[in-house]
TrEMBL record:
Protein name per its UniProtKB record: Putative F-box protein
Signal peptide residue numbers: none
Pfam families documented for this protein: F-box (PF00646)
SUPFAM superfamilies xref list: F-box domain (SSF81383)
Taxonomic source organism: Prunus yedoensis var. nudiflora
InterPro entries in alphabetical order: F-box-like_dom_sf (IPR036047), F-box_dom (IPR001810), SCF_F-box_component (IPR050796)
UniProt-listed SMART domains: FBOX
Annotated F-box domain residues: 6-60
PROSITE patterns, per database record: FBOX
């Protein structure tokens, strides 16, 4: 493969060229598609895009995707992509859109109060493209009998992405949510396998019930930790939390953690042992990253704006080329990038 069409071009073996390109960020790859037709075809091929995503996921090149609901002026939802090593942020102004999940650089967006017939889009903010999903043909139940909640994730068995109504988290192609029994008010973790389309139900330990109802004010904060479903709940002691993990169809308490900050609120996990926190200091709200293994905390000095409140749903994000050559994809115009949204005191 030649890098240009000129007589003085340097020949680069294709396997070496691919190895080099796989190490580059999305922004550079999009620019390099303009070098020549062969580079355009290579970078835009489904095999290269898949290998690039896998290499970034394997190397844990994830960032935190944090949501802020702004109350000043016209209501907006802004998602800040925090790069963990520096805590620098790229911020996305999402208008009135709601984030229902993030997977391999794709975001699932809907209206802020979705129902069965609300439009749903899958977008890639790294390349500013999106695909609109077809509207369901299911019959609408009475308004008082259902609440529509969406979950989005990747099913490795099907090698495809799935959107599930009534899910709160997706892990390995399985959607999870919590339901309460009408007779005894017991709490159950319900799962739906998007591949086999099979439902399962697990009774949650009574030790979790109070924490679920008191701490989050709702049953929508199911996290994914090391490819397992988990819950982060108050332990009953000041500045302590319990981490419960689903193992072999049972919930087990994995950790009880003391955070070295005031009023910590866990927000979400990376794929390793890092957890994002919101905490208070001198009457203001800040973000920090805590490592569960080393017990070390990285206080970011990122101060949350007074006129915004934090969405307790935090996803991880990794830039990718997905949707780059999808014939259904359209240019993404409803989301703008602003920098910065949250300013530290560095």
């Amino acid at each position: 493969m030649r890098s240009t069409s000129s007589e003085n071009s340097i020949y680069i073996p294709e396997e070496i060229l691919i190895d080099i390109l796989l190490r580059l960020p999305v922004k550079s790859l999009v620019r390099f598609m303009c070098v020549c037709k062969s580079w355009n075809d290579l970078i835009g091929s489904s095999s290269f895009i898949g290998r690039h995503v896998n290499s970034y996921v394997k190397n844990l090149n994830h960032a935190f995707l944090v949501g802020l609901q702004c109350t000043k002026g016209k209501p907006k939802i802004r998602r800040s992509i925090f790069f963990n090593e520096t805590f620098k942020a790229r911020c996305l102004d999402m208008g009135g859109s709601r984030l229902n999940g993030s997977s391999n650089g794709l975001l699932c967006l809907s209206s802020n109060s979705p129902d069965l017939y609300s439009p749903v889009s899958i977008c890639n903010p790294s390349i500013m493209k999106y695909v609109g999903l077809p509207v369901t043909n299911l019959s609408r139940p009475p308004e008082s009998e259902y609440q529509c909640v969406l979950a989005f994730g990747f099913n490795p068995g099907l090698n495809d992405y799935k959107v599930v109504s009534s899910g709160h988290a997706v892990s390995n192609g399985v959607a999870y949510w919590i339901m309460q029994a009408e007779k005894d008010y017991s709490l159950h973790l319900v799962s739906f396998d998007t591949g086999s389309e099979v439902f399962e139900k697990v009774l949650l330990p009574e030790a979790m019930w109070d924490g679920l109802q008191y701490y989050f004010g709702g049953f929508n904060d199911i996290h994914v930790y090391k490819e397992s479903v988990c819950f982060v709940l108050p332990s009953g002691r000041v500045d302590h939390i319990d981490i419960w993990v689903l193992q072999e169809k049972c919930l087990h308490k994995l950790h009880t953690v003391l955070f070295p900050v005031t009023s910590p609120v866990p927000l979400g996990f990376k794929t390793n042992d890092e957890i994002l926190l919101k905490y208070r200091k001198y009457g203001r709200r800040y973000l920090a990253i805590f490592n569960l293994q080393t017990k070390q905390i990285n206080e970011s000095r990122v101060m949350l704006p007074v006129h915004c409140y934090l969405d307790h749903r935090v996803d991880t994000y990794v830039a990718s080329l997905l949707l780059l050559k999808d014939i259904r994809a359209q240019e993404l115009k409803g989301i703008s990038s602003v920098f910065p949204l949250c300013r530290g005191r560095n």
